[in-house]
């Protein structure tokens, strides 16, 4: 890929919601991708999420620490193969705290004992509708790391799924953290730009890793 004419700048999209471009270098992206490939394997591997209305989410998902299903957390894959959820590794929690420190400062990271990861895999046609991450019992910031294809990440408000919102381009290696007054803001992924993953990463599609504190 051509070098950027100007490096992309870090930006505060809303109070407590910060985009840090290129937070993970190529080596760390590769390591995280390798870990995602391991986590995606059964048992308790990548699955299609069914919603209570009878639909399916187009992004497929695997969880660590606790299993998310619409709309709660369990210790086993209650809506899949029934296997115990894979453990949440210490190094991922450490990565989460570093991310919050870099995005929001050390004070915001002090209480953030990350224990859950939701890993979403998007192929070219996958999307994620506007929603809030509201099934956790803690208000620690959500950490979001992107790998592979670029997407449009829509970051909205706490009241409605509709405007006002801001569209942010998330590329491979980007970090997005939302906490404080933005912790319960609606957000979603209306578009993935197929074929934009860095070729050297060796993946097709997009992966998003969100880290959360369960408070459970
Ligand atoms: O893929 C993304 O960037 C967002 C994922 C997300 O909103 C979620 O896991 O709740």
TrEMBL record:
Record keyword Acetylation present: no
Keywords for the protein's UniProt record, in alphabetical order: Dioxygenase, Iron, Metal-binding, Oxidoreductase
Cofactor or coenzyme needed: Fe(2+)
Keyword set includes Zinc: no
Domain Fe2OG dioxygenase: from-to ranges: 113-215
Organism, as annotated: Streptomyces viridiviolaceus
Pfam families (UniProt xref): 2OG-FeII_Oxy_2 (PF13532)
Name of the protein in its database record: Alpha-ketoglutarate-dependent dioxygenase AlkB family protein
Record GO terms (molecular function): dioxygenase activity
InterPro entries per record: Alkb, AlkB-like, AlkB-like_sf, Oxoglu/Fe-dep_dioxygenase_dom
């Amino acid at each position: 890929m051509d070098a950027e004419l100007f490096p992309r700048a870090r930006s505060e999209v809303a109070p407590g919601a910060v985009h840090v471009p290129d937070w993970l270098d190529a080596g760390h992206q590769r390591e995280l991708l390798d870990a995602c490939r391991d986590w995606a394997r059964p048992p308790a591997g990548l699955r299609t999420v069914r919603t209570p209305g009878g639909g399916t989410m187009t992004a497929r998902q695997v969880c660590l620490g606790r299993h998310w299903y619409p709309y709660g957390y369990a210790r086993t894959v209650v809506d899949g193969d029934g296997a115990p959820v894979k453990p949440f590794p210490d190094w991922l929690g450490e990565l989460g705290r570093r991310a919050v420190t870099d995005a929001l400062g050390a004070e915001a990271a002090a209480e953030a004992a990350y224990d859950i990861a939701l890993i979403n895999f998007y192929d070219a046609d996958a999307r994620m509708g506007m929603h809030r991450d509201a099934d956790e019992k803690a208000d620690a910031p959500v950490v979001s790391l992107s790998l592979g294809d670029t997407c449009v990440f829509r970051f909205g408000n706490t009241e409605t799924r509709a405007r006002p919102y801001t569209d942010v381009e998330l590329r491979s290696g980007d970090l997005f953290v939302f906490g404080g007054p933005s912790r319960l803001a609606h957000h979603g992924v209306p578009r993935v730009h197929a074929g934009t993953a860095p070729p050297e990463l060796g993946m097709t599609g997009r992966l998003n890793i969100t880290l959360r504190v369960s408070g459970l």
